[in-house]
Amino acid sequence: MAISKVGIIGTGTMGLGVAQVCASAGHDVIAVKATPGPVDKAKDTVVKGLAKIVERGKMDAATRDAIISRMTFSSEENAVADCDLVIESIIEDLETKKALFRRLDQVCRADTLLTTNTSTLSVTAMMAVCKKRDRVAGLHFFNPAPVMKLVEIIHGFETSDETLEKLNVFCKDINKDPVIVQDTTGFIVNRLLVPYMLNAIRMLERGTGTIEDIDHAMKSGAAHPMGPFELADYIGLDVVEAMSMNIYMDVRHEHHAPPHTLTRLVQLGYLGRKTGQGFYDYSAKPPVQNPQLLRPVI
Ligand code: CAA
Fold first, then answer.
1. Sequence spans of domains, the chain
2. How far is CA 278 from CA 3, 271, 273, 289, in A?
3. Is the CB of residue 142 below 6 angstroms from any atom belonging to ligand 1?
4. Which residue's CA lies nearest to atom 15 of ligand 1?
5. CATH architecture of the domain covering 5-182
6. How many CA atoms lie within 13 A of 220 on its CB side?
7. For domain 190-294, is the CATH number 2.40.128.50?
8. Contact at 8 Å (CB) between 92 and 242?
9. Is 12 in the pocket of ligand 1 (CB under 6 A)?
10. pLDDT digits (tens, 9 = 90+) for 107-132
């Protein structure tokens, strides 16, 4: 059976981005706010994002209205019960995610595919709390979800071939470019990207170059759209630190542990673009490297 109705749990940046991608491809979407608070804010975020695309002449108003009409917003988790596919995109906390999977396994139809958008947690650990494990997998989107083509389909320990094939077809259907990956911490992209960002931070700590120089070098010399510090600020330094810790706890090699400067910035609440301060100071236009990082962070 083809996937028609998609349930998204979690209405943060990733959840709403994925919801928009699915609705844009013609799927009915129910987006569930996982934490207390007004659901209207989630809808407003999508409406404002689409309005910008229309303003720039990249989408017509009728298409925007059709996308919005396919999206329903709810604060009731059970609203996803009759979906063909559920994609959870809640907080990156394994116990919270396991509790959610335990509930989804009970309320959803037996043939509903249950997936997680986790970046570095174990899909198999979430699968383990479910009775019907063959329909559990990972579906890892990248930020910004409407733009980035890749989706990592994560093969958990007991994910069936049928589930993987359905997810593969679904990803192509929503105009994404999937790759099937075994369930290892960080999968493919974050297992390569996180050490890359950590190495850039250590390079800064050693005084190899400034933030701007290292970013410039990687954009100009390796054709990356963003340098490692711009990327870390974009992802969120708290997220980068958490991904680093998850990989470190798995492999126990200090190479993967969060560098001192990253930990200090997170402690200060300098989380990158979302707080206006990170490796860059976003109050300046254009952003400048954070002046406090021109001397060693202790
Ligand atoms: N939603 C929708 N569209 C967006 C968008 C968003 N949030 N952000 C940018 N876009 C669109 C713009 O509308 C624009 O589209 P058009 O060309 O059709 O006009 C296009 O993307 C390019 O955007 P901009 O011109 O504003 O800016 P840019 O050229 O600097 O691109 C970028 C911005 C796409 C973010 C680019 O810098 C990039 O690809 N950066 C790398 C991002 C990346 O590596 N993401 C992965 C992070 S790791 C991750 O997500 C995994 C995890 O688990 C944490």
1. 5-182, 190-294
2. 40, 5, 7, 9
3. yes
4. 147
5. 3-Layer(aba) Sandwich (3.40)
6. 6
7. no
8. yes
9. no
10. 999 999 999 999 999 999 999 999 99
